[in-house]
Amino acid sequence: MSLIRDMLGTILEAHEETKSLHKSDSLKAIRHRINSDILNVFKKAKIIWSCIEDLDRETVAQRRLSGYTDGTPRDSC
Q1: Mind listing the pLDDT tens digit for each residue in 55-71?
Q2: d(CA 9, CA 11)
Q3: How many Cα atoms occupy the beta-carbon half-sphere of 21 within 13 Å?
């Protein structure tokens, strides 16, 4: 998660940098860097999302094995 925060900070800095540039080559280079950073954030977020879904599935399976069902007092934890 901290890697994503750092990358988002880098993207914001690059965005602020684009406001002061006027050369098209420089703007294209920064735009390319921003796009690649956004793709990297997206890939990392998908990995984190996948891990969370795996944990959710494991939790549901463990509750079934333990005999807890929806609505039982133990389920509210």
Answers
A1: 999 888 887 777 666 66
A2: 5
A3: 15
